[in-house]
Amino acid sequence: MTPRLIFGAGSIGTTLKGFTYSWDTPEKVSDLLSVLKELGISELDSAAAYPPGNPWNSETLLGQSKAAEKGFIIDSKVDTDRPFPHLDEERVKTSIDRTLSLIGTSRVRVYYPHAPDLVTSLEEQARAFDLQYRAGKFEKLGLSNYSAEDVEKFFAICEEKGYVKPSVYQGQYNALQRHSEEKLIPLLRKHNCAFHAFSPVAGGFLTGKITFNLNNPNPTELERTRFRGESAISFAVDTYDQPYMHEAIWKLKEACDAVTPQIPLQDAALR
């Protein structure tokens, strides 16, 4: 089956140093959109928090480059740039209104909470999203980074109250992060809810570059990655740059090298 690709807009407008390239002007973003169109990609995954360290700039640039007018389908997520609570009715309304204003559209396709709110009750969260859904501001409700237990509770609340139910879940999934297979994915299947996987190559870790250069004192190949130097991201380093993860990479490489023709590690990770 041909994979469905959604372009993650988290790097658009970034101010992080050391990246190979930065789409930090409307002109650069317009050029990016042209390339995506040529590749047959017309869906963008955005968020109020994008890019990290400079929230709202991604959506500002998407609006300035007229992504919606050019036919791109845009998903977004609630602003989480403050301590809890961030998923009460006022916050959800304020966030989606700003997103729509910046992007220059009347609604987005999928609207997600970016992460759980440990203060606002799930019932109030569900009601907050339902109000904006019924106002026509998004087509589908999504969930992201919620535990399987909270997802199950969220569905139960929506069914009991007649609120719009989530139809998309966005979560981390790759060859090294498969915990969602145990409870979450069967639960989503039960509720006919799609799963959108992010980080399919583990932030680049599944290319093997980090593992294969562990004993290299000055690996230029690791410059501008999410694991070394100014472009390093703590979440990626803490999650993957661990002894047992490097051991897994060597085992994966052994398996990829054992077949004929051999499969590049990154290609295998995406299959």
UniProtKB/TrEMBL annotation:
Lineage: superkingdom: Eukaryota
Domain NADP-dependent oxidoreductase: 5-254
Keyword Zinc-finger: no
Keyword Metal-binding attributed: no
Alphabetical UniProt keywords: Oxidoreductase
Pfam families for the chain: Aldo_ket_red
Signal peptide: none
A GO MF term: oxidoreductase activity
PANTHER family: NAD(P)-LINKED OXIDOREDUCTASE SUPERFAMILY PROTEIN (PTHR43364:SF4), NADH-SPECIFIC METHYLGLYOXAL REDUCTASE-RELATED (PTHR43364)
Name recorded for this polypeptide: NADP-dependent oxidoreductase domain-containing protein
Annotated source species: Sordaria brevicollis
